[in-house]
């Protein structure tokens, strides 16, 4: 019933239309296809098995628009010796019916679209149209590019409207891998890539890239534009899936998952696969840093481009439009070569050049995202080495003013929300992805000095020489042939635009994170002074105190940056006191800190650590002066204030709610108690916490909670080298002292004045909870 057996025997490599397993035909090829189809979906292909008269009779009453009959014709015209022109005619008729529904889905409000019904798509799928399209378009007889393109279009339109179709296609692994092999054909690349992207977006299990036939050869066959679009697909395969459940993001849940999954994840495996492709990273660096030729006045069209982009949310679709626009321009140029006429033409004639610019920006977004993910993976050092070698940072520096952070009027500025998955303009996505890349590149890595130019590196050396301190090894070892060119390095350019952002612009969040990452790690006095000389501290304080900023995300990023900028730095505290020079300003600053300790606790940790160090340098006149004059240090020097913060920090977290965002509250609490232990005052602090409990009429509640938190701390940190190194570098307290202090606090000897158990009355003991047990 499916196909008449063809007697042809061939030696051309084909793939089965169902399982897509490649083989050389040495037996009756079409008999194998028929057998596979009968075995896999004997009932799915309904239309070909029903009498045409019956279908036509029911069509009028059911308003099927002739779709079942078209599916039947499509099936009938898919034989080896069929007239493929008829096949394509049928596909185009189907595509027309389905594309109208797909377009309505794309252009409607998302919520409305989800509630809509798409009868044509449903009918097409119901009568086996999807399976027939897969068979008709992607069987060996479909070496006709136009036929394949039409089939892909039909399948894509179905996927847009019906998630069930997408999931059905995603469940066929061999089909998915077969689609990748079609990408070698440039004529159908965009259609294939678009369909793959939709399929991978709903696939339950992430594919393994090394399962794609000849992946290195496939990647090397791409031109630069195709490679950029391929990065959009790769982003799904190298990023850990978002579980979409807040409970799963707790550290307790993550630790349990890590115990269950000891082997590398598929995303990590795919990252290694990509890094092993010769020339892959080098080509991405060239894509990220290549210049764009912009037409005069392109920025005038930005607002219109952003409006239509709200529905044109697929880079691959934009590629197709750019291709059409290019063809139109070429056709127009043959009719008239008068450049003055083109220059004064209406917007519709000049828009193609604007689209090309935005298209290039969208390509860079995809490339930067892939590079950013790789920088955060297990192969980070290998990626860092390659990015430095291929001069990614100097290349981005040369693009900064002309493309990355072009100057627009306030009317064109769009404030971006904190949700990374929101629909936004290409320009905004590009800026955010660029800032995320800088953050990942600088964070705890010696290559951070590549963000400067040679003159700025000399400035750091001069700061160290003047302060009579040795230069840090990372600065000395920086290869100056790989640093930024020009009058300003990338970090300095970032500081310049950072000061111009509106108070609540979410760009401030990412900008502050990128600058903070430059400071993170072992504290460098020269790095701090480099930024202090450029007015960064005053700018941060203005944003916190005087700008009226109310964004919690932005304020948190500024608190964290301020903490790194001021830590152990006498000059920074002097500058702070010069800006916060009235009681009114100081109270406004404290009010911002008090409003959310989760956001500000890293700054509190910096102040406590700095105060402790300064108090041990009583012979230094500059230190004594700042201790006596600085509002902030005087405030934190009072024990009652430190105890108040300590109580609140412990009280706002528990083991069940600990996340990567708030675990810093636990570590800040530990810093306060470690410093107290050094001075022999740990019993005093524990006793004060007990008294606070009693005053609040919750005896044992706080200390039992703290005991459980410390037990979790041992489970979490003692098996994480990176985290423990970060704690040691940021606090300048040996990790051995962290571990020792936690062990002392968790001691079971109730006679020990340094053990939490000694301060919990017997009736309120809850130390034997099984929360952390396997």
UniProtKB/TrEMBL annotation:
* Family annotation (InterPro entries): TRPC4AP
Q: Which residues form a coiled coil?
A: none
GO cellular component terms listed in the entry, alphabetical order: Cul4A-RING E3 ubiquitin ligase complex
Q: Where are the transmembrane segments?
A: none
| Any single biological process term in GO | ubiquitin-dependent protein catabolic process
This entry's Gene Ontology molecular function terms read:
phosphatase binding
Q: What is this protein called?
A: Transient receptor potential cation channel, subfamily C, member 4 associated protein a
Organism, by scientific name, is Electrophorus electricus (Electric eel)
Q: What is the lineage of its organism?
A: Eukaryota, Metazoa, Chordata, Craniata, Vertebrata
């Amino acid at each position: 019933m499916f196909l008449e057996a063809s007697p042809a025997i061939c030696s051309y490599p084909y793939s089965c239309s169902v399982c897509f397993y490649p083989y050389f035909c040495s037996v009756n090829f079409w008999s194998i296809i028929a057998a596979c189809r009968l075995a896999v979906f004997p009932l799915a292909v309904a239309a070909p098995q029903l009498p045409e008269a019956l279908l036509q009779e029911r069509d009028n009453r059911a308003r099927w628009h002739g779709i079942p009959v078209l599916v039947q014709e499509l099936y009938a015209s898919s034989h080896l010796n069929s007239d493929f022109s008829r096949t394509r005619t049928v596909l185009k008729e189907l595509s027309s019916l389905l594309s109208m529904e797909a377009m309505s889905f794309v252009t409607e409000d998302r919520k409305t679209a989800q509630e809509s019904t798409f009868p044509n798509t449903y009918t097409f799928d119901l009568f086996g149209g999807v399976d027939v399209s897969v068979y008709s378009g992607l069987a060996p007889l479909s070496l006709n590019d136009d036929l394949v393109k039409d089939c892909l279009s039909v399948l894509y339109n179905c996927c847009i409207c019906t998630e069930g179709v997408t999931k059905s296609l995603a469940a066929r692994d061999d089909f998915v891998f077969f689609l990748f092999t079609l990408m070698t054909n440039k004529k159908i690349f965009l259609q294939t890539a678009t369909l793959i992207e939709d399929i991978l977006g709903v696939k339950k299990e992430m594919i393994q890239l090394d399962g794609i036939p000849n992946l290195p050869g496939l990647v090397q066959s791409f031109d630069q534009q195709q490679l950029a679009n391929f990065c959009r697909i790769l982003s799904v395969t190298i990023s850990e899936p978002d579980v979409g459940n807040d409970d799963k993001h707790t550290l307790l849940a993550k630790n349990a998952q890590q115990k269950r999954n000891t082997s590398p994840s598929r995303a990590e495996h795919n990252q290694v696969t990509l890094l092993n492709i010769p020339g892959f990273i080098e080509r991405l660096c060239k894509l990220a840093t290549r210049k764009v030729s912009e037409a005069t006045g392109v920025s005038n069209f930005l607002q219109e481009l952003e409006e239509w982009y709200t529905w044109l949310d697929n880079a691959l679709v934009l590629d197709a439009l750019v291709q059409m626009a290019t063809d139109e321009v070429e056709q127009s140029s043959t009719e008239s070569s008068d450049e003055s006429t083109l220059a004064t033409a209406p917007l519709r004639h000049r828009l193609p050049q604007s689209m090309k610019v935005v298209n290039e920006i969208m390509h860079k977004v995809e490339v930067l995202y892939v590079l950013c993910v790789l920088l955060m993976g297990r192969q980070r050092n290998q990626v860092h080495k390659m990015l430095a070698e291929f001069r990614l940072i100097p290349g981005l520096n040369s693009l900064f003013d002309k493309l990355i952070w072009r100057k627009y009027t306030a009317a064109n500025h769009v404030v971006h929300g904190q949700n990374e998955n929101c629909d936004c303009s290409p320009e905004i996505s590009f800026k955010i992805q660029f800032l995320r890349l800088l953050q990942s590149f600088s964070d705890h890595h010696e290559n951070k000095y590549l963000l400067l130019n040679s003159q700025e590196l000399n400035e750091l050396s001069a700061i160290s020489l003047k302060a009579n301190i040795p230069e840090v090894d990372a600065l000395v070892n920086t290869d100056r042939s790989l640093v930024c060119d020009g009058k300003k390095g990338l970090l300095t350019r970032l500081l310049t635009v950072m000061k111009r952002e509106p108070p609540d612009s979410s760009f401030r969040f990412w900008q502050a994170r990128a600058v903070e990452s430059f400071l993170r790690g072992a504290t460098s006095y020269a790095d701090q002074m480099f930024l202090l000389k450029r007015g960064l501290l005053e700018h941060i304080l203005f944003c916190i105190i005087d700008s009226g900023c109310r964004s919690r995300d932005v304020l948190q990023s500024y608190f964290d940056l301020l903490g790194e900028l001021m830590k152990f730095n006498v000059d920074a505290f002097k500058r702070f006191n010069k800006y916060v020079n009235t009681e009114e300003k100081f109270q406004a600053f404290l009010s911002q800190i008090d409003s959310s300790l989760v956001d500000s606790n890293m700054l509190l940790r910096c102040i406590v650590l700095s105060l402790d160090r300064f108090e041990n340098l009583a012979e230094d006149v500059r230190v004594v002066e700042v201790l006596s004059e600085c509002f902030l240090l005087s405030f934190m020097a009072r024990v009652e204030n430190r105890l108040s913060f300590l109580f609140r920090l412990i009280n706002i977290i528990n083991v069940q709610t600990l996340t990567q965002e708030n675990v810093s509250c636990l570590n800040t609490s530990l810093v306060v108690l470690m410093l107290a232990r050094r001075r022999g005052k740990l019993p005093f602090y524990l006793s004060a916490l007990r008294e606070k409990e009693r005053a609040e009429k919750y005896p044992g509640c706080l200390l039992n909670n703290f005991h459980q938190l410390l037990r979790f701390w041992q489970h979490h940190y003692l098996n994480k080298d990176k985290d423990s190194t970060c704690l040691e570098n940021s606090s300048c307290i040996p990790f051995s002292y962290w571990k020792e202090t936690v062990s002392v606090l968790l001691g079971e000897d109730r006679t020990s004045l340094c053990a939490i158990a000694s301060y919990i009355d017997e009736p309120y003991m809850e130390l034997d909870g099984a929360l952390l047990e396997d």
